[in-house]
Predict the structure.
Amino acid sequence: MAEDIERAPGRAWLVGVAAWFIPGLGHLMVGRWVRALLMGGAAWLCFFLGMTMGGRLYAFVLEGPWSTILVSIPPAVANIGAGAPYIFSWLLDYGFADDQQRAALATYEYGNTFLLIAGLLNYLNMLDAFDIAAGRKS
């Protein structure tokens, strides 16, 4: 039974991390140019559209009532999936604050949704590139 466990090669893990950090890079590393352009491009496009529409990025809330802490986890995990765009926004402290001017935009909620989709879509991109690199998928 223990022999049935399939081990992913080290390169697959490197491809997975690269795919998370820069959307589309994992597919480029395994030679899937069209997937890199379409899937990685879709994640980048969703992120930048979300920011342009005045969307808000979420971070983990570590203080306050436990219900506030628990409710902050799913959107923060979804946003972190965007990789480098999320990290650079966090380093620049852009898109996290409840800015009244951004919230006044009619597209604010659409922007939030696009930002969440960007991260979740990049998780799918990462898993797809990982599976290709591990030889589980063609």
Notes: Helices lie at 10-21, 25-29, 33-52, 66-80, 84-91, 100-103, 108-134. The first helix runs from residue 10 to 21.
